[in-house]
Design brief:
heterodimer, A: alpha+beta, Uridine Diphospho-n-acetylenolpyruvylglucosamine Reductase, domain 3, five-stranded antiparallel sheet, 10 helices, B: alpha+beta, Ubiquitin-like (UB roll), DNA polymerase, domain 1, five-stranded mixed sheet, globular
Chain lengths: 253, 176
C-alpha cells in the first residue's frame, strides 16, 4: 500500500492489525532481506506527505516520515543527537517515526531521537485503534508504539538551555551505547536517557533532586552486544553530569 | 515499474518490496553495488538516487519508482574515467575493490554538494563506508586530491596500454 496523503495513510493503517509500516526502510528492509519478517501487508510512507516540518503557532511539528537529516538544523538537544545517528546516507533515509517506533533492537536499544525529544517535552500524534490521539512521548513509548501509526511529533517553540552527552562508537557508530539529553525551559528541567532501557526513559529522579547518581533510580541497564550493565551503571551518572554541565542557551531559531 | 539507470530507462519486473540492490544486481546485471552486510551498515551498496547517495540495500524498489539511479558504471568508462575514478586510480585507493564503488559514489556525491570539502567533510562523507583492507589513508588521499581539483577526467585508456588488439571491455550496466 502506497498512500499519497496523511489521511489515506491513517485509513490504510486502520487498527494496525497485520500491518507493517515501512517509512525509510532502514529497520524493516534488512528484516525482509534476512527473512526474519514476513509481513501480511506493508504500508509504505514514501509518498504519504507525512514528511513536513513546520514552525508556527508556538510549536515545531515534525512529520513522521521526515528524515533524520532534516533534524540536524533544528533545536538542541535534538540537532546534536540527530547528527550522531548512523551516517550521512542512513540519516537521509531513516525517519523520525521509525526512530520513535524502533523496538529494542537486535543488538542494543535503538531510537536515539527519543531522549532529546522527551527532554524537549514532545507530544506524539498518532492514528490507530480508537482513532487519532496526542500524548506525551514518554506515554507513547510506554504503550505499544508498533500498534500506532505516528503522524507527527511536536514540541513548544521557546528559548531553552539544552545539553547532550553521549558514548558512541567511532567510525560507523551505528548505535549509541548510552546518551543523556537535557533541556531547561521556563525554569523546568527535563532529562532523558537513551541506551539504558529498551526505549528512552525520562530521568524524573534527577529532575527532582538535581543529583546525577539518582539516574539509577529511573533505569535498570542491561548487558548487550555493545556494553555491559556494569559499564552503563558507571557511565550513566557521568553523562548526566556532563549533560547538565553542558546546558547552554538556545534561542528559538 | 520504471527506473532510469545510468541514463537508460529500464522496466522492472521484480516485486515492489525487492531491495534496489537486488534489482540492480540480479535483474539488471549491474554488479558494482556490492551486497555486503545488506543491513545498511557497510556502505558497499551505495548508489546515487536522484543525485543523492543512498543505500541500495535499504530501499524497496517501489519507494524509488521513476527515480534516476547512478552507479559507478554510469560515471565513466574504462577508456574515459570520471574524475573520481581517476583520483582513486592515481592514488592506489582500491585494494581488494569490494568497497570501492560505494566509496566512489560517496566521494562523487560529496564533491557535487560541497565546492571545496575539507578533510573533516571527507571523513564524515565516508563514515558509513567500511574498507576491510583498511585502505582508508589512500582513499582519503584520493578524495582530498579530487577536492583540491588536482584530478581531471581521463582521456587515456589506462587498461589498453595503447595496444589496438586488446579486446573491448564490456561493463554491464554502462550506457555504452
Amino acid at each position: 500500500m502506497l498512500p499519497t496523503s496523511p489521511e489515506e495513510a491513517a485509513q490504510a493503517f486502520g487498527d494496525g492489525t497485520g500491518i507493517t509500516v515501512l517509512a525509510g526502510g532502514t529497520i524493516v528492509v534488512p528484516e525482509l532481506t534476512y527473512r526474519r519478517l514476513a509481513p501480511e501487508k506493508v504500508l509504505m510512507l514514501a509518498r504519504s506527505g507525512l514528511d513536513r516540518i513546520t514552525r508556527d503557532g508556538g510549536a515545531v511539528t515534525i512529520g513522521a516520515a521526515a528524515p533524520v537529516s532534516a533534524l540536524e538544523s533544528l533545536d538542541e538537544p535534538l540537532a546534536t543527537a540527530a547528527r550522531y545517528v548512523g551516517d550521512v546516507e542512513v540519516r537521509a533515509q531513516a525517519t523520525v517515526g521509525g526512530n520513535l517506533c524502533a523496538g529494542p533492537g537486535r543488538e542494543t536499544p535503538i531510537g536515539d531521537l527519543q531522549a532529546p525529544l522527551i527532554a524537549l517535552g514532545a507530544r506524539v500524534r498518532s492514528a490507530g485503534s480508537g482513532g487519532e490521539r496526542t500524548e506525551p512521548l514518554e506515554d507513547f513509548l510506554a504503550g505499544d508504539p508498533r500498534r500506532r501509526l505516528v503522524l507527527d511529533v511536536s514540541y513548544d517553540d521557546k528559548p531553552r538551555e539544552a545539553g547532550y552527552a553521549a558514548m558512541w562508537r567511532p567510525h560507523t557508530h551505528h548505535y549509541t551505547i548510552l546518551a543523556v539529553a537535557a533541556a531547561r525551559a521556563d525554569g523546568e528541567l527535563r532529562l532523558a536517557a537513551t541506551g539504558a532501557a529498551p526505549h528512552a526513559v525520562r530521568l524524573s529522579s534527577v529532575e527532582a533532586s538535581g543529583n546525577a547518581a539518582d539516574a539509577l533510580n529511573d533505569v535498570n541497564p542491561q548487558d548487550d552486544a555493545l556494553a555491559s550493565a556494569w559499564y552503563r551503571r558507571k557511565i550513566l551518572p557521568r553523562l548526566v553530569e556532563q549533560a547538565l554541565a553542558n546546558l547552554t542557551s538556545q534561542g528559538a531559531a | 515499474m520504471n527506473l532510469t539507470v545510468n541514463g537508460v530507462e529500464r522496466t522492472i519486473s521484480s516485486p515492489p518490496l525487492t531491495p534496489l540492490l537486488q534489482v540492480l544486481r540480479e535483474e539488471l546485471g549491474i554488479t558494482s553495488p556490492k551486497a555486503g552486510c545488506q543491513q545498511g551498515g557497510c556502505g558497499s551498496c551505495t548508489v546515487l538516487v536522484g543525485g543523492e547517495p543512498r543505500r541500495a540495500c535499504l530501499l524497496p524498489v517501489a519507494a524509488v519508482e521513476g527515480a534516476s539511479i547512478t552507479t559507478v558504471e554510469g560515471l565513466g568508462t574504462p577508456e574515459r574515467m570520471a574524475a573520481v575514478q581517476q583520483a582513486f586510480h592515481d592514488h592506489y585507493a582500491s585494494q581488494c575493490g569490494f568497497c570501492t564503488p560505494g566509496m566512489m559514489i560517496a566521494v562523487e556525491a560529496l564533491t557535487r554538494r560541497e565546492a571545496s570539502p575539507d578533510r573533516y567533510d571527507i571523513e564524515e562523507a565516508l563514515a558509513g563506508h567500511f574498507c576491510r583492507c583498511t585502505g582508508y589513508v589512500k582513499i582519503i588521499a584520493a578524495a582530498e586530491a579530487l577536492a583540491r581539483g588536482e584530478v581531471h577526467a581521463s582521456t587515456n585508456d589506462p587498461l589498453a596500454g595503447g595496444q589496438s588488439d586488446q579486446p573491448e571491455i564490456l561493463v554491464p550496466g554502462s550506457p555504452a
